[in-house]
Design a protein that fits this description.
By secondary structure, the chain is of the alpha/beta class. The protein folds into two domains: 9-148 and 197-238, Rossmann fold (3-Layer(aba) Sandwich), CATH 3.40.50; 149-189. Helix content is 24%, strand content 30%. Helix 3 packs across helix 4. The longest helix has 13 residues, at 27-39.
Length: 240
């Protein structure tokens, strides 16, 4: 079995195959989210916005196209090549290259949290987001509900455009979802996501002077329900 590197999974997984594997994420959900946030005035747009872990720039491109002053960052140089025409920098979520209180809003979308082996590193990520946020600024935080720890999709296969077939296996250990992608050409990578309850997330943000403003259950603006919402989209305001 060939593994490209012995570094952490997030150094290996975010590549061209990742983009193809998740190509089902389309503009529809971006449009829904933008309509929900802007037209219902759920976050401020009168300052600079940070798109955290922007990947190939899907959301960042949509924001800029619609007149939002935004910049993005990601750790993956391969994904950043896909949006080199946009204002992006390469950075680790735990150590951001921005001054204190730079942004009016920080967006962390599409489950870009819970990646690290040590939960304390997740706290470092939140601390950095709060540090670069202006007082009274808002953090938009999109994760999956914790019930997905027990409602995993079944194992499946996926055929890439070059004919390579991936076998995808998912399992839960404690509060972490492990997703193993094994290719029939010998390549393999693992994705890992630590999942938090709403109360746990709220307490983590409260530690750094933020309080919950509202919580949605999907990009269309529907209310959050722990029993059936497909997403958990929280908005926190920095109060100190």
């Amino acid at each position: 079995m060939k593994i490209t590197s012995n570094t952490e999974w997030y150094h290996r997984a975010f590549n061209q195959r990742y983009l193809e594997l998740y190509s089902h994420r389309d503009e529809k959900e971006l449009a829904q989210l933008f309509f929900t946030l802007v037209h219902f005035k759920l976050f401020p747009t009168d300052g600079k916005v940070l798109d955290a872990a922007c990947g190939a720039g899907r959301w960042l491109r949509y924001l800029i196209r619609n007149g939002v002053d935004a910049i993005g960052f990601d750790l993956s140089s391969e994904l950043l090549k896909e949006c080199s025409d946009l204002p992006v920098v390469q950075a680790d979520m735990r150590s951001l290259p921005f001054e204190d209180q730079t942004f009016i809003s920080v967006h962390s979308l599409f489950s870009s949290f819970g990646y690290f082996v040590d939960a304390e590193e997740d706290m470092r990520q939140i601390r950095e987001f709060v540090r670069v946020l202006k007082k009274d600024g808002w953090i938009l935080f999109d994760t999956i509900p914790d019930r997905f720890l027990y409602e995993l999709p079944p194992d499946n296969t996926y055929q890439f455009s070059d004919g390579v077939i991936a076998s995808i296996h998912r399992e839960t250990k404690q509060n972490i979802i492990y997703k193993t992608v094994q290719l029939d050409n010998g390549e393999m990578w693992e994705e890992r996501l630590r999942v938090y309850t709403p109360i746990e997330l709220d307490q983590m943000f409260q530690k750094y002077g933020c309080c919950l403003l509202w919580r949605l259950g999907n990009y269309d603006g529907s209310s959050y329900n722990a029993n059936y919402s497909p997403r958990m989209i929280s908005c926190y305001v920095r109060t100190t």
